[in-house]
UniProtKB/TrEMBL annotation:
<keyword id="KW-0813">Transport</keyword>
<dbReference type="Pfam" id="PF02508">
    <property type="entry name" value="Rnf-Nqr"/>
</dbReference>
<feature type="transmembrane region" description="Helical">
    <location>
        <begin position="12"/>
        <end position="31"/>
    </location>
</feature>
<feature type="transmembrane region" description="Helical">
    <location>
        <begin position="126"/>
        <end position="147"/>
    </location>
</feature>
<feature type="transmembrane region" description="Helical">
    <location>
        <begin position="37"/>
        <end position="58"/>
    </location>
</feature>
<dbReference type="InterPro" id="IPR010968">
    <property type="entry name" value="RnfE"/>
</dbReference>
<comment type="similarity">
    <text>Belongs to the NqrDE/RnfAE family.</text>
</comment>
<keyword id="KW-1003">Cell membrane</keyword>
<dbReference type="GO" id="GO:0022900">
    <property type="term" value="P:electron transport chain"/>
</dbReference>
<keyword id="KW-0249">Electron transport</keyword>
<feature type="transmembrane region" description="Helical">
    <location>
        <begin position="178"/>
        <end position="203"/>
    </location>
</feature>
<feature type="transmembrane region" description="Helical">
    <location>
        <begin position="70"/>
        <end position="90"/>
    </location>
</feature>
<dbReference type="GO" id="GO:0012505">
    <property type="term" value="C:endomembrane system"/>
</dbReference>
<dbReference type="InterPro" id="IPR003667">
    <property type="entry name" value="NqrDE/RnfAE"/>
</dbReference>
<keyword id="KW-0812">Transmembrane</keyword>
<keyword id="KW-1133">Transmembrane helix</keyword>
<protein>
    <recommendedName>
        <fullName>Ion-translocating oxidoreductase complex subunit E</fullName>
        <ecNumber>7.-.-.-</ecNumber>
    </recommendedName>
</protein>
Amino acid sequence: MNRFENFKAGLIKDNPVFSLFLGICSTLAITTTVNNAIGMGVSVIIVLIMSNVIISCVRKITPDEIRIPVYIVIIATLVKIIQMLIQAYAPSLNTSLGVFIPLIVVNCIILGRAEAFASKNGILDSALDGLGMGLGYTLAVLSMSFIRELISTGGIKVVNPFNEAQVWLNLHIIPENFTISIFGSSVGAFITFAVLAAAVGAYKQHVTAKEEAAAKEEK
């Protein structure tokens, strides 16, 4: 698999949320609004890329016996830096995401890519892998939050995380009488996740069937 294919795999084929079912806890919890999804998605992308690069750099000098604790320390350090920056410059986002920012440390996506990929590959490949998986996670939480916020509130509102008075997007699509508030709760999170996961699974099966049919025709 070349670099581009490896990068692209994280978006759909090996999407960390809908295909590998990693990071489900934070995905279900923070996808009540698009604002939350953007903040968490960007944070995960940054931590994934930086942790993959650092772990790729130290992989040859890290003893196998202590590699997991070393990875966790690296990831925890990066997450703490991100958390401090969010607290300083985007306090409203910090309040919305709450405990799920520090919990990025134990997110299976980040530790999984560190162990499965960054510890075995070069710096550039690891950085691209982190970017691909991070974008895949962000795509997943954005799609879930868009559906949940739209159905539960009737619209989508995105504000500048550094200045709440600045509204970037404010759409009202569904009349208030037709909104379904349950989609703002955990029940709505599970329903949305199940539908999107099924859709991704069906799409992957369709692509696989087409590839198999094409391979048979070539023979």
